[in-house]
UniProtKB/TrEMBL annotation:
Organism: Leptospira ognonensis
Details of cofactor binding: Binds 1 Fe cation per subunit.
SUPFAM superfamilies hit by this protein: RmlC-like cupins
Protein's name according to its UniProt entry: Pirin family protein
Pfam families on file: Pirin, Pirin_C
Amino acid sequence: MNSSAIKSVSPMGFQWETEDPFLFCVHHEDFYPKANSHFGPDVSLSGRNIGQDFEVKDGFRMYHGEKIPGFPSHPHRGFETVTVVRTGFIDHSDSMGAVGRYSAGDVQWMTAGSGIQHSEMFPLLNQDASNHLELFQIWINLPKKNKMVKPHFTMLWNETIPKLKLKDGNKNITIELVAGSLNGTKAPSPPPDSWAADEINKVSIWILHMESGAKWTLPKAEIDLNRNLYFYSGDSMKIADQPISKYHKIGIQSQTDVLLENTSNEDISLLYLEAKPIKEPVVQYGPFVMNTREEIETTFRDFQRTQFGGWPYPTTEPVHGRELGRFARHADGKEDHPPANA
């Protein structure tokens, strides 16, 4: 096993480089101060580019939010969003009338399909201490045959996401399976029209945690899968005996076993994305992803005409009550909650 297993190594910026069928991946981590009574930071926001606040100042960003951090109402068509929360809270609202709140360890998987508006706000609930937020958002393309399916979202509660506990001697390795399978254990089912819904497409989204000194071999798979590791937490490691420093993306061969080794004095964490590529043309304009320029132009006209169902809330930055826990209320009125006995 050697560095021939590695196809590429590149530094990761704010937006992480991805491969088909993954379109986009971003890692948000913000250290918000204690909250005010309106779910925002209890500090002055002067000096920030409110509405476009993407520069870290005093440990946090407001993103597109004006009073509450996050992403107020905006449209999507033609792909899916997978939002993986590590710590903190996200309040979801959408043009279908669905709402929800999810938190540490939960995942929301939303198929935009033919078109949806949604908001993703980061309500600060702790008024007595700081509010730490960490999440990944991953965009997955839809094949042409599914680009205009009905919008849908699935909530994968932390309690339902398998965490494989592996050992390397006395060293611990934990692998969280958001999508895909490993050692006979399967992740929860993705939305029905997802590229990941057909197991033949081999879509895997895993989060790996390795104690200092731990080694683990990522098993080989079939040829021509796109496989990437994102080393986002920890100091140093080796992949196929090649030293890798923190905050680098590593593209790896799919038909080769790949040895991962934590060479640092602390735990490390990696995000792993794997899938069979869709291999169709991709034309993206902002929040719309289609196969042709003409389809993008049609999407703009459709949104101007229908607003993808309109926005049924009095504000573009809706959040839910401070007293509410984790929940999802779908467009049909059905409520979904984390399993009580998990």
